User: What shape does this take?
Amino acid sequence: MVILLGSANSSVLSRWHDLLAGHHSLILASSLSDVKNQAAALQVDMVIMHRVLVDADACAEIRSLSPAVKLFLLSDNPTPEEGLAFLKAGIVGYGNTYISPERLIEAVNIIGAGGVWLGQKVIQQLILETSKSSGAPDSPDLEQRLSMLTRMELKVARLVARGRTNLEIADELEIAERTVKAHLTAIYDKMHVANRLSLALLINQGRA
Assistant: This one.
């Protein structure tokens, strides 16, 4: 996996590089413009960004420049509110800048496999928000969106809502992982969502 590391802090860049070296192909960027240029020009699978380097608009722009790239944001002072704001901009990972070596490798592996990795506080906040509408009746809008999916796409969407990774979905449905990714691209377009977390929340919040 090719990972672009973006931070204006040389010690942070060095730490991330040392922790991930030997596991993945790494590219370093020390400015936001460098991150944007390299994400757009190179075959990058993931961008690990320092929060002080980007805002939500910058994350959205990077996603527009390279839609397939996975965005992992690390913050010096992570909070649920900040994490949720950036999730809406398209990130699929959020944690502390000085995350432990074991947790960083775990997070990168999960995100690389098509999952979402979040700090515990952000997860708790998402659960709380989801539970607020869990007793609501089925949403006609959700039912209409789901009706546009094929049978296989619906199965994939339901499994994403249960927290399955792409590899787990592929194993359960006995299809190739690349086929899961193709189904997800179609699902995001039909459901008008930006990523798998948005899809999962939409489905879970619409359930009775």
About this structure: The chain is about 55% helix and 15% strand. The beta strands are 2-6, 25-29, 46-50, 70-75, 93-96, 117-118.
